[in-house]
Write a structure and sequence with these properties.
Length: 94
């Protein structure tokens, strides 16, 4: 039962990342994003993955940790791209 609840938690967190990525792609702006927040979430997923690997308790939940890590990583990359685009717009006087 605890594994199921853990999966529910990770899936619940994971539902928000595709929406966040879509917003980042559409707005092409880093405004309203927090790099420290994204990095803490990224580090948290790394810790969750490391915990599973160290304990040897690799179940289907592990897949959700990896998927979430990849989505947060994508959002971090988009943050830097969008920050560059924001700087370009500011330099052009938009």
């Amino acid at each position: 039962m605890s594994e199921f609840l853990e999966a529910c938690m990770v899936v619940s967190f994971g539902i928000s990342w595709p929406m966040n990525i879509i917003k980042s792609v559409r707005t092409r702006s880093a405004k309203g994003k927090s790099l420290p927040f994204l990095l803490f979430i990224f580090a948290g997923y790394i810790c969750g993955i490391a915990s599973k690997l160290i304990s040897g308790n690799i179940t289907y939940v592990f897949v959700f940790y990896v998927l979430n890590l990849l989505m947060v990583g994508t959002d971090i990359i988009l943050y830097f791209r969008n920050r560059r685009l924001d700087a370009q717009r500011a330099a052009a006087g938009e």
